[in-house]
Design goal:
- The complex is a heterodimer.
- By secondary structure, chain A is α+β, with helices and mostly antiparallel strands.
- Chain A has 2 domains: 64 residues, Arc Repressor Mutant, subunit A (Orthogonal Bundle); 90 residues, Ribbon (Umud Fragment, subunit A).
- Chain A has 5 helices and 8 strands.
- A 6-stranded antiparallel β-sheet of chain A has the order 3-4-8-5-6-7, with no helix packed on it. Chain A has a two-stranded antiparallel sheet with strand order 1-2.
- The longest helix of chain A is centred in the N-terminal third of the chain and has 15 residues.
- Chain A starts with 6 loop residues before the first helix and ends with a strand.
- Chain B contains 15 helices and 14 strands.
- In chain B, helix 4 packs antiparallel against helix 6 and helix 12 packs antiparallel against helix 13.
- By secondary structure, chain B is of the alpha+beta class.
- Chain B is 38% helix and 18% strand.
- Chain B has a 5-stranded mixed β-sheet. In chain B, strands 9, 10, 11, 12 and 13 form a 5-stranded antiparallel β-sheet that branches. Chain B has a 3-stranded mixed β-sheet with strand order 3-2-4.
- The chains are: A alpha+beta, B alpha+beta.
- At the A-B interface, strand 3, strand 4 and strand 6 of A face helix 4, helix 6, helix 14 and strand 14 of B.
Chain lengths: 198, 438
């Protein structure tokens, strides 16, 4: 197995440099920054960072950072009580909205909701839910499931004593809980709801 | 050959563990994953081409295969679901499949959109599991998280795993340990061996060989004399000696770059066919410049409605990556091939004899200023198109492209017809979108 590259450490230092200098370091600077012996190693790192989406190469071959490196949204630090100072930008690592909403990118899918059975759980028609496939739901999770051939989105509830009985509960008094008669296929677990306003 | 009397080729189990992951009817599996209502139904993709690109196992059971014409397939099955290919979603799934593989090992080779190799040698200790168990975990993760079927082959070399993953399908799992290779190979006909074409197989038949085992047990010198280095390598790979490593590098060197587009309806319109050809040349040049290459050779291919094709090749004056410089030659070659009144279904451009665009030499009677202007123009076009969309700035012949009657083959995939708020034709969210009514 080849030596693994400490990519996160590299990214952290590039990010710090970018914050400080408001520009990307040049090859010679990166050489020094990471203790490399040849510029080819810098090139290799940049190739890697490009595939991971941290930097982008312009047609002229210049390196530019992506929002993944710079962080698209800055976190605001907490305001200290009693101090009339404005909230300062906290220089912590930045999580993009993508990373915040999506825990496992390989297993996450978008699904536009049509019905109103989960209104009281804050899921309205036309909302996009982010569904994670392949996990095991726990009681109280919201799941997308196919019950006796019909797809639905509901709270998942498994009986504590009798581990076999599964009940799917709506979050809308106009609907009744569903107990699967013939089949239950789990599509995935809802991990987030996205609603965009004008 | 008596199976029981044959000798094992090696006595060790996995001196090296390589796995091959192969998507089962990948395109249609992806479609069935995002449209669960299509599960269990015969589905095919390739609506935009009029020929089947991929057929689901339900369709295959009805005798509908890749390459069959759509009208014929519809005749074979009335309820056939025909979908336009949505390469955007297929790529998303493909990327996820390889990302799952990379959870287990850094040495992953993306062989094509739906198959890849991974070297898991020495990883038993990391996962506290046998190689079979690791490979099964990979398969389980893909099945659970992507909801598509893949078949897995596990063995000692790339040549063997390729055969193993094909051995049981769909959702198959075939592990061939070193001491079982000789039994496995006796069940593999020569036609299936990776690297043997029809002609090689026929040649080997003449020598009385039938199975991969027959070939693998021939003496080394024999394979070498008959088929050269390729034959020697295939023989070694079949015997469990890895000579073709799993190479995780991204493809960076191209021998040729080609662009082929089938028209959505066959056409005999001279301007339209020529415009399509030039558009292919433009696309090929964009790729050429992206990899910082120049071409010295150009091949133009016109494909008739009945799949007959004619090709002609020519040398360029000098290596170039500017489409403006190629167009006069493209025109010339096109005129030599095109027959008025004949119906064509596709045009293709192949750029060959590629070299890097660095250290380019000007010739004695060239006009360096003009050359330089051409390079700068290409660069400007690339920049504009990157910002505003591919082919926004294009050659004038592109105006003829809209000149054809719309057919069902122009239907866009579901995802492109159902954009989310804020998405455009060029930019969409990078998550697959399930099509389920909840």
């Amino acid at each position: 197995m080849p030596k693994t590259m400490q990519i996160h450490e590299r990214v952290r230092r590039l990010r710090a440099f970018y914050r400080e200098e408001k520009r990307m370091p040049g090859y010679a600077e990166m050489l020094k920054m990471f203790g490399y012996r040849s510029k080819n190693s810098v090139y290799g790192l940049l190739q890697k960072l490009e595939t991971l989406g941290y930097v982008r190469k312009t047609p002229q071959g210049k390196i530019t950072p992506t929002s993944r490196l710079t962080g698209s949204i800055k976190l605001l630090g907490a305001v200290q009580a009693g101090f009339p100072s404005p909230a300062e930008e906290e220089l912590v690592d930045v999580l993009s909205l993508d990373e915040y909403l999506v825990r496992r990118p390989e297993a996450t899918y978008m699904l536009t909701v049509n019905g109103d059975s989960m209104v009281e759980a804050g899921i309205h028609p036309d909302d996009i839910v982010l569904v994670e496939r392949g996990g095991t739901p726990r009681n109280g999770d919201i799941v997308v499931a196919q019950v006796d051939g019909e797809w639905t989105i509901k709270y998942f509830h498994k009986d504590r004593k009798d581990r076999k009985t599964v009940r799917l509960e709506p979050a809308n008094p106009r609907y009744k809980p569903i107990v699967p008669r013939q089949s239950l296929v789990l599509g995935g677990i809802v991990k987030a709801v996205v609603r965009k306003y004008r | 050959m008596d199976t029981l009397l044959s000798q094992p080729l090696t006595l060790s189990s996995y001196p090296r563990a390589i796995m091959h992951v192969d998507g089962d009817a990948f395109f249609t599996s992806v479609e069935q994953s995002i449209h669960p209502e299509l599960k269990g139904r015969p589905v095919v993709t390739g609506k935009e081409r009029g020929i089947i690109a991929c057929a689901s196992y339900e369709a295959k059971a009805l005798g509908i295969r890749r390459g069959v014409g759509l009208w014929e397939a519809r005749r074979m099955c009335k309820d056939l679901v025909v979908l336009p290919s949505d390469y955007e979603v297929y790529s998303l799934y493909s990327k996820r499949m390889f990302d799952i593989l990379r959870r287990y090992t850094p040495i992953v080779e993306e062989h094509s959109i739906d198959e890849g190799f991974a070297d898991i040698s020495g990883l038993r200790r990391v996962f506290h599991a046998s190689y079979e168990e690791i490979a099964r975990r990979v398969q389980r993760d893909i099945h659970n998280e992507l909801d598509i079927g893949v078949s897995i082959g596990l063995s000692l070399t790339k040549g063997l795993v390729k055969l193993a993953s094909k051995f049981r399908k769909p959702r198959g799992f075939t592990a061939v340990a070193g001491y079982h290779i000789h039994l496995f190979l006796q069940r593999i006909p020569l036609e299936d061996v990776w690297g043997f074409g029809r002609n090689t197989v026929q040649l080997l038949h003449k020598h009385g060989l039938k199975t991969a085992y027959d070939f693998a047990t021939r003496p080394e010198g024999w394979a070498d004399r008959l088929l050269g280095k390729v034959g020697r390598d295939i023989r070694m790979e079949l015997r469990g000696v890895s000579v073709i490593p799993v190479s995780p590098e991204e493809k960076s060197a191209y021998a040729t770059i080609s662009k082929c587009k089938t028209f959505t309806a066959s056409s005999d319109d001279r301007d339209f066919i020529y415009a399509k050809l030039v558009r292919n040349a433009e696309s090929a040049c964009i790729k050429l410049r992206r990899y910082r290459l120049c071409a010295r050779e150009l091949i133009v291919i016109l494909r008739h409605k009945d799949y007959r094709q004619e090709a002609v090749e020519a040398k360029l004056n000098r290596p170039t990556s500017a489409v403006q410089e190629m167009v006069p030659l493209v025109r010339e070659l096109f005129e030599s091939l095109y027959r008025p009144g004949a119906a064509y279904r596709a045009t293709m451009i192949v750029l060959g004899k590629l070299q890097t665009d660095q250290n380019r030499q000007y010739e004695l009677f060239e006009d360096p200023v003009r050359m330089d202007a051409m390079i700068r123009a290409s660069r400007a076009i690339d920049e504009i198109n990157e910002r505003f969309g591919k082919h926004k700035v294009c050659l004038g012949s592109g105006l003829h492209l809209n000149r054809h009657q719309r057919t069902e083959r122009d239907d866009a995939p579901w995802r492109k017809r159902n954009l989310l708020e804020g998405e455009t034709a060029r930019r969409r969210l990078g998550l697959p979108r399930l099509c389920v009514d909840v």
